[in-house]
Each structure stands twice: as structure tokens, then as C-alpha cells.
Design a protein that fits this description.
Blueprint (H helix, E strand, L loop, with lengths): L4 E5 L6 H7 L6 E4 L10 E5 L4 E5 L4 H21 L11 E6 L1 H11 L13 E6 L1 E6 L4 E6 L5 H12 L11 E2 L4 E2 L3 H16 L5 E13 L2 H11 L4 E6 L3 E7 L2 E6 L2 E5 L1 E6 L4 H12 L2 H19 L8 E10 L3 E11 L6 H7 L8 E2 L1 H11 L10 E6 L4 E3 L5 E5 L2 E10 L5 H20 L2
Antiparallel strand pairs: 1-8, 2-3, 2-12, 3-7, 4-6, 5-6, 5-20, 7-8, 9-11, 10-11, 11-19, 11-23, 12-13, 13-22, 14-15, 15-18, 16-18, 17-18, 20-21, 22-23
Helix pairs in contact: 2-3, 6-11
Amino acid sequence: MASLRRISLPYLRDSCALFTSLKHLPFPVFLDSAAPFSEHGRFDIICAEPDEVISLKTNNYKDIDTFLINTEQRLQALSDEYLHSDELPFCGGAIGFLSYALGETALVASKHQESSHSSATPDFHAGIYPWAIVVDHQRERCELVAQASVSELTLTRIQEFLRAAPAENIDVRFTLGSEFSTSLNRSQYQDAFERVQDYIRAGDCYQINLTRAFTARYEGDSWQAYQQLRETAAAPFSAYIDLGDSQILSFSPERLLSADKGRLQTQPIKGTAARDSDQQKDAALAAALQSSAKNRAENVMIVDLLRNDFSKSCQASTVRTEQLCELQSFRTVHHLVSTVTGQLRADCTPFTALLNCFPGGSITGAPKQRAMEIIHEIEPHQRDVYCGSIFYLGGGGKMDSNILIRSFVCADNRITGWAGGGIVADSDVDEEFTETETKIGKLLQALADL
């Protein structure tokens, strides 16, 4: 009977060296818990050279519908076929992302509105990886895990890459070629904010996530930029994905959906406060966030929305709110995080459950469909992969996914990042504008300092 191959490797506290040794291979991915800079993460997953690539880029919602049906069937067959281990999160399978544009196109084009987005990244991308390097920082273990189909030659070659010292190239140093420009300056943001408030007062919605885009020219290696940024904004759902013509750099603190033995979990974030180097001031900022009625109300709204999303995939009466507005602290910000769980129905797959929650309610608003229509109308920029989701899906239906916030795309020598926040009836425009600066400001400064 076929079995997993598991080869022990030397443990490194920082997995960046492992990825650097393999990033020259096609379609390398690094799912990064951000150790040693974050206490929240545990497992790092590194893959490259997929057996198969599934990709879609379209403006036609009918193409998306057919594509996702076929993809769900392919990924479910993969989940049934691939071997897995209860003690490891991933032993090979699919790793990829859903772009926010995927959900937006399905909504906008299906309502016979104009849908024209151009992007350096696909709407959907997934590689099928038969091997993975898995680092467990809790147990201080590192191993190369491979499906039975992987040849001994391939396993030997991977280990040789890992043993070889990575070549250094001083010509690839990452540097910005311009200052960051934004799609919404202070005046433009206020105009967009007031339009959102008009919709809220009219009863169209009760929360809208309004975002800003930030773009600059750059030269050099985006991997170098990623390593610098993870020291600034370490987060447990970080990732680096190299598509060849473009790269995704994500420092997300937010889980969209996980699945393990049929148990689903989502952890929406709503409520943000800046951190301070002074411990007393930092504690005061955290306490103020916890006691903020407005931020708690925003969080509860999204929890209600996600409970409704879960009802599409879960057994009746199994959806529960395990934590409500729990304070979690990261390197640059404090957040309020809630946890919702449920048990997957027998007739629903983990990937379908992911689609039923996509895009995440915390980055759209409520009700979700109307919120996305308003976002499409008001925001002057494309969200691209921002507010989409990076996911993995392996054998036995094990899955996890993030929400692509605190993220950048590098393509055509331009780097673009985004930041936003939820607008409700009693939001203050100055506070909301400042929140976008709080979320991305230290990242932009870190890039400027390279």
C-alpha cells in the first residue's frame, strides 16, 4: 500500500533560507506563519514545481461558473486521492488564490453591468504540488513530505538544492523608484466616505468596507522586499507566491476559512488600533479598542453575516460563535477577532464552503451583495488580489485560507498595496482615514527604507 515519504531536515527557526534555496523553481510558494517574528503562527509550508496549474482570467461570469464547478470536482478528487497525516497541516495538494476580482466579476457581470478589469494576476490560480517542506515551529521539526508518486530522483534533487548555499546577487536589491501615490487622497476619500454614508442612510446597507490603493515604481527582487516587510508586520497568515510575471506579498493576520475533519472555522477581524512602543500607552490603546462600542458593533455585524454564510455549508444547528471580539495583538496593530465554527454537511466539500464564504464579509460589508455593488461603483481602483484569499487544500479535505489584507502585488516594476476599513452610520471620516494610514503606513515606510 502506498504511503507518504517523510524525510527529516535540519530545523531552522527562520524558514526564509529554505525558501530562498528553492525559489528559482517554477511557481514557488511560501505559506509563512512569520516565525520568529510572530507568536501566533506554528507551521510554515514551502512548495514549488507543481505537477499541474489551474488558472483563470476572465470578465465573463458564465466562464467563472463553469470553471469553478470543474475546479471543485478536480480539487475534491485530489483531496480523496492524496495521502495525509493528522499531525501535519499539508502533505501535498493544491495551493493558490482566489482574487477579489473573481467574486466581483461574478456579481457585476451577472447583473449585466460593465465588467472590465485588467490585472497582472489571474482571477484564480492553483498549483497541484505533490511534495512540500513543512516546518513545525512548536516542535522544532522540519521535514520534506511527498506523495507516493514523487520519484527518488526528485527528492534527492530537492535535498541538494537545500544543502547548496544560495547564490547572492547584489544587482537584485529592491529599491523604490518613486514615492507611493494613492487612489484616494484625503479630499477624495472624504467624497467617497460621504457617498457611502448616503447609501447607509438610504437603507441600502449598514456597513461598507472602503479601501485605498497605494502604488510606486520599483526595481529589484520582490523576495527581498518580502523579507524586510515580514520583520515589520509579521502575521500568521503571511504568504509569498511567485507567478513568474508577478508576485504576491501578503502579511495577513486574518483567517477566512479552515476545514479539518469536517469542522469549519472562520475568524473575522473588525476593529483596529495602532500599537505603541511605550507599554503603558500600548495597553491603553488595546483597552480602548476592547471597550469601543462602535468597533464591537462592526465586529458583531460581520459575525452575523458569516454565520449566514456558514449556514449554506454546515449542518443545521452546528454554527456557533466560539469567541466574540477577542483582543489579538500583532507587531503593528491590535485587532478584535471573533471565531465562528460549524460542521460541514456531507453533501458539501471544503472548497465549496470556501466559495460560499467568498469574498470575506469583513472586507466587503453587509449585506454582502449590495456592499460589493457599492464598492464597485465608488472605489476608483481595482482591488486585484487584495481582499481575495490564499488557500491550501490537501488530502482528507484539510484546508486553510487567509483574507488577502496587508498585501502587495509586484508586476511590471510597480508595487501596489491596499488598506481599508469598515464604514458604518456613526463612523468619523478623520478616524477612518487615519485607520487606513495605520494599517499600511509602517509597511510603506519599510519599503522606502530599503
